[in-house]
Amino acid sequence: MPLQYMLWMFFLAFCVQSASAQNDTAITKPTTDSSITAPAHIASDSLLKSIAVADTSKKRSPAGTAALLSAILPGAGQVYNKKYWKLPLVYGALAFPAYTFADNLRWFQRTRFAYNVLANKDTANYKNVYVQLQPLVKRGDKSGLQNYRNDFRRNVDYSVLAFILLWGLNVVDATVDAHLKDFNITDDLSLQIKPGYMPIANTAGIGLVLNIGKNHTNRLSPGR
Fold first, then answer.
1. Which of 30, 79, 128, 175 has most Cβ atoms within 10 angstroms of its Cβ?
2. Residue 205 neighbours by CB under 8 Å, 6+ apart
3. Kind plus residue range of the DSSP H or E element containing 209
4. How many Å is the Cα radius of gyration of the chain?
5. pLDDT digits over 103-138, tens only?
6. In whole angstroms, what separates CA 97 from the centre of its chain?
7. Buried b (16+ CB within 10 A) or exposed e, 193-221
8. Mean pLDDT in the chain?
9. Domain spans in the chain, listed from the N-terminal domain onward
């Protein structure tokens, strides 16, 4: 009996020790989750790079800025391009259709009122007809008043179209100037005829020399 009892105690102790070892292994097992072990600075660097790319893509070109300014306010794109001398041209061009629009609209309203007075035989308002149109009303020239009214109405439409067209040309001018702003146009441009030497044919001859700026010269090799 004592021997059997000792064997049972030894077996129980072995089981307890094995279970404890398994628990310790489960607790100390390293975590392999990449989301936890990934360094934080890598994620932050990726975020900064994406923001920088987005900012670069949203950056507007000088031509786009000039076009936007001119579309909002005529002449603003020319000021942005530092072409101040174009401001009188822009506003002078836009002032003409604006004036014709206002003048034709005023006359359209006058002739329409006179025509309505004559068509309705509203004698009480004869005195309110514009002075230059009263003779037409007094002699009953309805067709004449109708023609004048239609002509002034058509001129109003033409004035609006001309104003929109000139506004668009103002935008185009500012955009083209912005595109050519960084284009280098040098006065040092010359084409000369000089003697030269052709290494391939091993002969002397006359060549054309094209100079574009001080540091850009394209010519044949000089003769020896």
1. 175
2. 195, 196, 197, 198, 220
3. strand 203-212
4. 45
5. 999 999 999 999 999 999 888 888 899 999 999 998
6. 26
7. eeebeeeeeeeeeebeeebeeeeeeeebe
8. 75
9. 64-179, 189-218
